[in-house]
Every structure is written in structure tokens, then in C-alpha cells.
Amino acid sequence: MKRLRRLRNNETIRSLIRETHLTTNDLIYPLFIKDGYKIKEEIPSMPEIFRLSIDMAIDEIKTLRNLGINAFLLFGVPNKKDLKCINIVNKALEEIKSEIKDAYLITDVCLCSYTEDGHCGITKDGIILNDESVELLSEISLSYAQSGADMIAPSDMMDGRVKKIRKTLDKNNFSDIPIMSYSAKFASSFYGPFRDAANSAPKFGDRKTYQLDIANKNEALREIALDIEEGADIVMIKPALSFLDIVEATKRTFNIPVAVYNVSGEYSMVKAAAQKGWIDEKEVVLETLTSMKRAGADIIITYHAKDVAKWLSYQ
Q1: Could you say which protein family the record assigns here (predicted)?
Q2: Binding residues for 5-aminolevulinate
Q3: Residue 163 catalytic?
Q4: 37 domain residue, yes or no
């Protein structure tokens, strides 16, 4: 009789044959950057996540690096809706790099936090203008590279933006800056807490004309293939948990690093259930993040990163 349970008898043997390993090297921590000084505003719908002024973000990065988290995804949260306020991220890049030269800084590239209507591109008469948005997104990407960004991460889902950003970076001697594209970003219901954090909810309509239909797997793979063709170095699937089939198919189909975004709604559901005492937060988080790696993710962007780093250090 074959007894597979022989290899489950105790933690030592289980550890020896474990197939998937989660480490701090897999994790990217998102940061919400706000204008001002000594600002640390907790986001009500995202317990233990804060909007931070640049000085406080620097302190947070130092803490996280001591825990083994070395990569950070920056989002700007302007005090007023104005495309000119995008420079808050430029300021953050410059000040963080002046203080912590080897911090790996990734910049989300999108317009939703800065436009009056909260959409990810330029709008006219209720229509999101693709090509005009791509031009502006490429200019923003270049400005981030000039300010010290280590990686550019366009999240807008406009057609052709990876190609345009790649050409713009290459033309201006930033050919060594990689692009991590939000290649399969679905029109998900899991983004609500993020939109509170970044004040980025659309003021009219929705984002279904540019984000992917949640039911479409083959379309997602076509988007990913196109971004790779246009020059993406890493492709991202967002959200993570509801789309692990897309992660697995992407890893199996394309020879390229794959990232997932463990988004705000996924984070907040776990936090809320843990606060009620309904689940073991540590075990649930480690299980869900391990499932992302098992599906094929090389990189996990997650608000749980700080907690995970602490838990892993005590294992």
C-alpha cells in the first residue's frame, strides 16, 4: 500500500519536501505618498495602512528594509485634483533616494488620483481618450525615471502605452529602466478601499471600457502577449486571488516574470475577519500568498508585506 502520509508525519519532513516557498524577496510593499510633513493618516477601510508624507515614508521604508522588504510601489495622493500635482511622486523619489540610495522604488503610472473625474486617462465628453492619454503617461514615466525611479509600472490599461513608454525611455537614455505592466487588470469589485486611500473613484460611469471583463481569460492572455511584444519586462495580474487561473496560464504560456497585486479589498477582508476573531490572520495570509506563488507568481505586491516579514523572521 502506498502511504503518502509518511511524508506528512512532522514539520521537519514537511519542510524538507515543501514545493513552494514564500520569502521577503518575493514581496513589494505599496506606499501612499501625500504632500506635507509629519503626516500619518490611517485609511479607515484599510487597517494599519497609512497615507504618509515623504518624511514619514522614509521612516517607513527604513523600518521595512530592516525586516527584509527592499522594493516599494509609490502612489501619489494629492491634496487637490490637478495633473500638475503628479510631481508629488517626483519629490518623493528624489528625497527617498537622497536618504536611502539603494531603496528600490517603483512608480505606479496612472491619472486616476489626479483627474477631477477619477478616470485613468484624459476624458472628453464622457469618453476616455486613449492616444492622448498614452502621450501624457509616457511623459510622466520619463519624469519619474529622471527623478530616480528604478522601475515604471503603468496601470492605466490604455492600448499601446507600454510601447510608447518603452520608446520614450529608450530615446532619453533610460533603456535600463524596466517596465512592470499591469497587463491583465480586471474591472474588479475588490478595489474599493484603494479608491478611498487614493481618492480615485470615478465620478461618472465605470472603468469597464478599458479594464478587463472579469469573465475573460483568453482576452487577458492576449493583453499580456501584446504587452510583452511592446516591451514589458514583467507582467502583472490584478487582482490576485480571483484570477489565479490567469496567473497559472500566464506562467505556463510566457517565459517572463509574473507579478500579482494582492489588492486592497483582499487585504481588508482578511483584516476585518481577523478583527472579528473569525480567522487566524497569520495562517490565512501565509496561505493566500503561498497560493499566489504556487500558481506561478514571482512577485507579490501586498499590503500584508510588513506583517509577513515579521512572521517569516520568527519561523
Answers
A1: Belongs to the ALAD family.
A2: 195, 207, 264, 303
A3: no
A4: yes
Question: Would you tell me how many other CB atoms lie within 10 Å of the CB of residue 67?
Answer: 18
Q: Which of 34, 164, 185, 306 is catalytic?
A: 185
Q: What is the CATH number of the domain that holds 70?
A: 3.20.20.70
Q: Which of 34, 238, 271, 306 is catalytic?
A: 238
pLDDT tens digits for range 190-225: 998 887 776 777 777 778 888 999 999 999 999 999
Residues at the binding site are 110, 112, 120, 195, 207, 223, 264, 303
238 is catalytic: yes
Global pTM exceeds 0.90: yes
Which amino acid is located at 300 in the chain?
A: I
**Domain presence at residue 2:** no
Which residues fall in the annotated binding site for Zn(2+)?
A: 110, 112, 120
291 within 8 A of 247, measured Cβ to Cβ: no
DSSP code, position 215: T
DSSP annotation of 212: B
* Number of residues that make up the chain: 315
> Is 104 part of a structural domain of the chain?
yes
State which residues form the domain around 258.
19-313
User: Distance between CA atoms of 191 and 274, rounded to whole angstroms?
Assistant: 20
Q: Provide CB contacts within 8 A for 229, sequence distance 6+.
A: none
- Whether 4 maps to a domain, the answer reads no
Report d(CA 298, CA 25) in Å as an integer.
9
